[in-house]
Amino acid sequence: MSTALLRVQDLTVVFGARQALRGINFELACGETLGLVGESGSGKSTLARAILGLVRPARGRVEFLQQNLLACTSMQMREVRRDLQIVFQDPLSSLNPRMLVGNAIAEPLIIFEPALDALARRQRVGAMLERVGLAAAMADRYPHELSGGQCQRIGIARAMIMNPKLLICDEPVSALDVSIQGQIVNLLLDLQRDAGMAMLFISHNLAIVRHLSHRVLVIYGGRIVEVAPSVTLFDSPLHPYTQVLLAAIPAIFGSERAHTGDGRAPAGAAGVLPDAAGEADIGCAFRHRCRFAVAVCANSVPPLTQIAPGHWAACHRARDWQSNAGALSL
Amino acid sequence: MIPILQIEALSVGFLNSGAMNQAVDQVSLRLAPSECVGIVGESGSGKTQMFMAAMGLLAKNAVARGSVRFEGQEILAQKSALRRVRGSKLAMIFQDPLTSLTPHLKIGVQLAEVLVHHNGVSWHEARYIALRMLDQVQIPEPKRRLHEYPHELSGGMRQRVMIAMSLLCRPSLLIADEPTTALDVTVQAQIIELLRAVREEFAMGLVLISHDLAVVGGLAQRILVMYAGRIVESAPAEELFRHPRHPYTAALLKCIPSVFSAPRTRLPSLAGQPPRIGEKLDACAFAPRCPRAAERCRRERPQLQVAAAGEFACHYPEEL
Fold first, then answer.
1. CB-based burial of residue A302 (10 Å sphere; 0-12 exposed, 13-18 middle, 19+ buried)?
2. Which residues 184-203 in chain B show a CB within 8 A of chain A?
3. Are strands A215-220 and A223-229 parallel, antiparallel or unpaired?
């Protein structure tokens, strides 16, 4: 497939003795939303930072618009940033407190379209503010005068003003109130429909990831353990870790499936992420928490294998679950 | 039956450069012994400040009025009565367990200290009780943990330590303020399960404060919804989820994407934002965002009225 917008190959990031990412491979098509889920420490944010060139990988390749980003000079990387933007979790701390929000949104224009005069820039900023659902007059405010939801809209406006081809969203709604989260989700959907950008959407909120994504990638201990179209992943997960994650979604009384009948923590949820140093490399990193682990799980790392069209899982027993649907019920 | 906690007309305001900003506005509630109540609201709704006032932990510029009775004893006005029960019979845990633990003391010392201070037991005995409590909150290798510092534990383990600490003096009421917000979903499920287990075992009351209806819903028998410093609805959990009466509760339930919603469709969303603390309100605080609001809502503030299953404060409630 040469149409991939982003292609990540064998991406490995090492922090001292710890391997934060271990041989990550995936592709992202133009206009696609790829959800990325995993626990804290699983490597989700490190993956985003490695794609953006904010951490240096030990090995691997990040290809964006057919260009190897790891071989780019800083000047070339600056050009790439026009098409590759990020929205962070904490909207207030990612804005300069002493800069008017209008100037913060205008910064990319100053860099990439220096020919634009101040009036034209102001118009572009005003139009962008309106696209994210704020008044154009908001340009003359400081970040501390705005609410969390408004700051996140500013962050999105700044990221979107150059019409990037890929928007990386790192937990963009986690710090927001519940009633505001829905507004931001709708805004991202609207912007994507109009601007057609692809999104890499990182979140620990599985319901929101399911809602926004075409495909979802589950990461555990620095490795991809499952990839599938969003609805497939939620309806028929193959990896036991994905099952544990789904079962842990708190359910509104009476309106959802009764995960384990009485809302108790699912079996296998106990335990924590393995220490990323060394040990996990010998076998499946999840085996200590997995109630289905067998001898082979301790002896070799299960490769990411295509089990059904578009549905990949890294589990020695994935075919068992697939051939015997329901056997994995927790 | 004497309520374990009875709050009457509690108001909390913050004095800021001469102006008084009202965070909690004339809130009343009663908790039966060993009842589990969930308090839900967005940031700034007053849900935390209400209980910080009860615990005597308000900021210096705060003023609290009204009455808080714990097991029949006034504790808002009478600080000596509060000091006798706080940390022993009346305990509170917070969102961030790392900042609630002293970074330079070993876990064992911090736990034992509580018992030595409140119960006057010896350090040796206190350590033994602490060890047993760590075991009870399902901390693996509790003996080793006693000699560790807070930073050596994961977030979920720290929250377990906090829960263990709050249980040492066998409280009759535990207030848990966003106890799982900083944790991963799988760890969140474990902590909720732990709270369920210890509540049964210790037969204690539990107040679970959260911005997330779903987190509260798995545990609470009754849920109070707060908006702009007031309680706008109160009902048994199941009733609240099935038949919300206040439009704010109904909107909150609708705008959470569920694992059943149609992917990539617009979510029914609640426009606007909650009022800022200190905004003068002589109308319904929710009226500017409310799909059901009429002229009366902008003129007259609705009072809590008793409904079949609970209470709500709305002129034009959702039909049953």
1. buried
2. 184-190, 192-193, 196
3. antiparallel
Q: Do B188 and A248 touch (CB under 8 A)?
A: yes
Report residue B132 as tokens.
């047993």
> Any residues with CB less than 8 A from the CB of B255 and at least 6 apart, and which?
A178, A179, A181, A182, B267, B268, B269, B270
Confirm whether pTM is higher than 0.90. Answer: no
Domains with residue ranges and CATH for chain B: 5-256+271-312 (3.40.50.300)
Sheet of B305-306: strand order equals B90-93, B173-177, B205-210, B36-40, B222-227, B230-236, B311-312, B305-306
- The three-class DSSP label of residue A223 is strand
Contact B267/A182, CB-based, under 8 Å?
A: yes
- The tens digit of pLDDT for each residue in A195-232 reads 999 999 999 888 899 999 999 999 999 999 999 999 99
Q: Which residues 14-73 on chain B approach chain A with CB closer than 8 angstroms?
A: 42-43
SS3 content of chain B, % helix, strand, coil (to 5): 35, 25, 40
Question: By the 8 A CB rule, do A139 and A125 touch?
Answer: yes
**Strand partners for B235:** B223
Expressed in angstroms, the distance from the first to the final Cα of chain B is 31
Hey, what amino acid is at A122?
A: R
Task: Sheet containing A215-220: give its strands across.
Answer: A84-87, A166-170, A198-202, A33-37, A215-220, A223-229, A311-313, A305-308
Interface predicted TM-score of the whole assembly (ipTM), two decimals: 0.82
- How many angstroms separate the CA atoms of B165 and B4, rounded? 21
